[in-house]
């Protein structure tokens, strides 16, 4: 395959264009005109400034060029100059990167040639050619000295001729001539005097410059020589470290995987590995992921080739989980082919066409002071937060988005092995975070009693129901059931903590997944979501923490670790790693990927203690694994998603109006509907009306409770549905379980002790879908 052609810069060519440059946290990225010429990158506010005002210049010869993502890249010289730049498209960014790399190579080459020609002394590592370089330096110095002598001669001549001219003019003044002639002589004398003053000024400036250059020349030469010697030492040290690292890597692989004299025919038969030029890296193809920093608790290496040449009985025991190697039908294909209830064998039913767009997000400016000044003197629970911070979905709809990749549970329901099923469940837990990577808008807080149904039986085989079961603390219950053999239920309460620059959101509560055929019951909890740059700067979201997915029937467990983002980490961003173990702690699968892109798994053939030490001083576990298999990959966002709150294909349909839903359904919420239509001022007014209505209902419920036989529950609490600003202690799971859940009885869920985890939770009591079929919503409260 031929290499793509890239633009080549001629020596006199320049590269110009518009780029966005990061300025500060207040203004963010600003459009600037950049000019690349002679190894220097300069920028201006506009093209008109090129003739008189340069805003900054960086020398590419000593600069580092780093690509951050599809449009962003960074140029830094390792010192005080760092340019964070953003192109208008990925193609434009690649053009700039190509031009910058070519200019950098040329500038580095020219600097090296200049260094060689101007170096008057050599280090021991570069002793060859020292005589020729010294002779060139001496020749250059002789030329400079001759030029200095010429300048001195010119100085003497100017002084000599200037003095002679002054004397001649003075003699002319003594001669008695006519009045007109005397006036001419006087004018000539004045002009000669000006010439003498100007010449003296020029001579003095040249003399000062020459003295200054001679005084600093030796100092600069010494500093430059020290830098050259230091560079040579660093290059030698880096070369030694690279050789040591390569030697240790070879020794480690030979000790833990194969004897040093044995080759790997399974890999050799595949030919050279694409993208690898060194024969020593030929086995990198089967590596699951590179050995990384202390955030990773284990290391994976390719399994011994003997595991690829097992007998038929042994192979069947391995390949029954997650499919086999090339040439063998995967488990999913076999299941679909043999399942008489698969979609291919069923009668085709017309499926409703869902919407694929919503109105574009308006570009309204947000004045924080205009919001805060209206809150002076008000109670915290009554501070109205405008919809400018929101997205046109409620928290119940965001909770339903966990089912975006329901196919993973469908595949898990077909699995014969609980360990293989665990891999799909773990991938499902990670996939629920993929929709949050660009979603910086806050969902609407559901009103108490608000519901949301997601009926996808025809398209996907499942139906889901959410209800806001408590407001203090805010808690939502969720129940989903699929015709393909699985049930998902959860109750999630959100506790937030504002920490100055960022906001931490900690979900409390457990998620349950039950498979009907095997009766496997899985539980897990969610990780912490962090929203950065709350005050100034561009908002961005990170997920961090650990998840333990537990199969309560078999004792299998999957420990997932979400690595927090670190500016100094060399590892891939948003990384997730995990290990699937049985009840005895034996590892069977290794998982790896990112929560915003994909997850893969590799079957563990052998594990041992060894390798490098972790942060706590303990040796990491080394897993020998087979080739990785992809479990899940994120579906690309629809076209124009950046103008539609970065909604996924499923999210775009969640607030689509539907007939027959309950009067309490989130689709009927007026402030949310007005925001989706771009009428934000009306949405803010409607939001305040709903919150005040909920306060009135809350006060009436409290009065009824005070008249009952439980006076201990008296007291004023925050209003239902208000976007509250809470100042609370560090939340905990124990606090959440013991807190009182309002004086409210949910419509479709009832609070009871979970039989598996022994935790109090809200479980679906039934009746919703029957009420929908009958169209009987008489018992639903009027919350809108």
- Span between N and C termini? 63 Å
Q: Describe the strand arrangement of the main beta sheet, using strand numbers.
A: 4-3-2-1-7-6-5
| Global Rg | 37 Å
**Which overall shape is indicated by the principal axes computed on the Cα atoms?**
elongated
> Helix proportion of residues, in percent?
25-40%
Treating each run of at least 4 consecutive H or I residues as one helix, how many helices? 16
Family: Belongs to the OSBP family.
Protein name: Oxysterol-binding protein
GO biological process, one term: lipid transport
GO molecular function: sterol binding
Notable characteristics:
alpha+beta, single chain, 784 residues, disordered N terminus, 27 strands, six-stranded antiparallel β-barrel
Describe the secondary structure blueprint for this structure:
Layout: E1 15-24, E2 28-37, E3 40-44, E4 56-59, E5 64-67, E6 72-76, E7 82-86, H1 90-118, H2 130-174, H3 179-256, H4 265-268, E8 298-302, H5 312-319, H6 331-338, H7 368-372, E9 390-394, H8 395-400, H9 407-414, H10 418-431, E10 442-444, E11 451-456, H11 457-460, E12 462-471, E13 474-482, E14 486-498, E15 502-508, E16 511-515, E17 521-524, E18 528-532, E19 540-551, E20 557-562, E21 575-581, E22 587-594, E23 598-613, E24 619-625, E25 629-633, H12 649-654, H13 670-676, H14 680-706, H15 733-738, E26 749-753, E27 760-764, H16 768-774
Parallel strand pairs: 8-24, 9-10
Antiparallel strand pairs: 1-2, 1-7, 2-3, 3-4, 5-6, 6-7, 11-12, 12-13, 13-14, 14-15, 14-16, 15-18, 16-17, 17-19, 18-19, 19-20, 20-21, 21-22, 22-23, 23-24, 23-25, 26-27
Helix pairs in contact: 2-3, 9-10, 13-14
């Amino acid at each position: 395959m031929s290499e793509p052609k890239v633009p080549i810069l001629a020596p006199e060519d320049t590269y110009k264009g518009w780029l966005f440059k990061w300025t500060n946290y207040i203004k963010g990225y600003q459009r600037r005109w950049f000019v690349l010429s002679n190894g220097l990158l300069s920028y201006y506010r506009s093209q008109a400034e090129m003739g008189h005002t340069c805003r900054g210049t960086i020398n590419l010869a000593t600069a580092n060029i780093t690509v951050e993502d599809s449009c962003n890249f960074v140029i830094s010289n390792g010192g005080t100059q760092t340019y964070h730049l953003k192109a208008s498209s990925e193609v434009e960014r690649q053009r700039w990167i190509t031009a910058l790399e070519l200019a950098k190579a040329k500038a580095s080459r020219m600097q090296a040639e200049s260094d060689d020609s101007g170096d008057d002394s050599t280090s021991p590592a570069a002793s060859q050619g020292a005589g020729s370089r010294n002779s060139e330096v001496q020749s250059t110095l002789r030329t400079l000295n001759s030029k200095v002598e010429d300048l001195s001669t010119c100085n003497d001549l100017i002084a000599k001729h200037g003095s002679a001219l002054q004397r001649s003019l003075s003699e002319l003044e003594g001669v008695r001539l006519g009045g007109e002639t005397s006036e001419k002589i006087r004018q000539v004398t004045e002009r000669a005097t000006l010439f003498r003053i100007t010449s003296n000024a020029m001579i003095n400036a040249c003399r000062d410059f020459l003295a200054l250059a001679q005084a600093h020349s030796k100092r600069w030469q010494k500093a430059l020589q020290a830098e050259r010697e230091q560079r040579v030492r660093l290059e030698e040290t880096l070369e030694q470290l690279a050789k040591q690292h390569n030697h240790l890597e070879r020794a480690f692989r030979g000790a833990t995987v194969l004897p040093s004299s044995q080759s790997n025919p399974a890999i050799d038969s595949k030919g050279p590995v694409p993208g690898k030029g060194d024969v020593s890296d030929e086995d990198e193809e089967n590596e699951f992921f590179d050995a990384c920093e202390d955030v990773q608790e284990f290391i994976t290496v390719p399994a011994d080739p003997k595991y690829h040449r097992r007998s038929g009985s042994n192979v069947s025991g391995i390949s029954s989980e997650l499919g086999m190697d090339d040439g063998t039908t995967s488990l999913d294909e076999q299941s679909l082919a043999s399942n008489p209830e698969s979609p291919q064998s069923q009668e085709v039913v017309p499926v409703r066409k869902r919407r694929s767009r919503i109105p574009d997000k308006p570009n309204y400016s947000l004045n924080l002071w205009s919001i805060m000044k209206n809150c002076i003197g008000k109670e915290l629970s009554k501070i109205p937060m405008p919809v400018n911070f929101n997205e046109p979905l409620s928290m119940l709809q965001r909770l339903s988005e966990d089912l975006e990749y329901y196919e993973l549970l469908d595949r898990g329901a077909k699995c014969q092995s609980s360990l293989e099923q665990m891999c799909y469940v773990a991938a499902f837990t990670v996939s629920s975070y993929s929709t949050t990577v660009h979603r910086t808008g806050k969902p609407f807080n559901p009103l108490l009693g608000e519901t949301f149904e997601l009926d996808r039986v025809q398209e996907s085989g499942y139906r889901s129901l959410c209800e806001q079961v408590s407001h203090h603390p805010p808690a939502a219950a969720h129940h989903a059931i699929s015709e393909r053999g699985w049930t998902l239920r959860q109750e999630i309460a959100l506790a937030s903590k504002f920490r100055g620059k960022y906001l931490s959101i900690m979900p409390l509560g457990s998620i349950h997944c039950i498979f009907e055929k095997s009766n496997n019951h899985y539980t897990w909890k969610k990780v912490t979501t962090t929203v950065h740059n709350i005050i100034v700067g561009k908002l961005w979201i990170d997920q961090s923490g650990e998840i333990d997915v537990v199969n309560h029937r078999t004792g299998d467990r999957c420990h997932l670790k979400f690595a927090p983002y670190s500016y100094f980490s060399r590892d891939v961003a948003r990384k997730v790693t995990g290990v699937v173990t049985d009840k005895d702690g034996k590892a069977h699968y290794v998982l790896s990927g990112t929560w915003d892109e994909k997850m893969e798994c590799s079957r563990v053939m052998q594990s041992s203690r060894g390798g490098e030490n972790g942060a706590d001083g303990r040796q990491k576990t080394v897993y020998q694994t087979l080739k990785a298999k992809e479990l899940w990959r994120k579906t690309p966002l629809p076209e124009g998603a950046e103008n539609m709150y970065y909604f996924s294909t499923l999210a775009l349909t969640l607030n689509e109006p539907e007939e027959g839903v309950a009067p309490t359904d989130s689709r009927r919420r007026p402030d949310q509907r007005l925001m989706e239509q771009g009428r934000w001022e009306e949405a803010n007014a409607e939001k305040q009306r709903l919150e005040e209505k909920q306060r009135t209902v809350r006060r009436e419920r409290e009065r009824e409770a005070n008249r009952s036989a439980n006076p201990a529950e008296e007291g004023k609490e925050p209003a239902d549905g208000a976007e509250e600003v809470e100042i609370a202690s560090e939340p905990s799971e124990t606090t959440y379980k013991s807190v009182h859940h309002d004086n409210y009885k949910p419509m479709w869920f009832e609070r009871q002790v979970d039989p598996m985890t022994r935790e109090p939770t809200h479980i679906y009591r039934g009746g919703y879908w029957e009420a929908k079929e009958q169209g009987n919503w008489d018992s639903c409260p009027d919350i809108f």
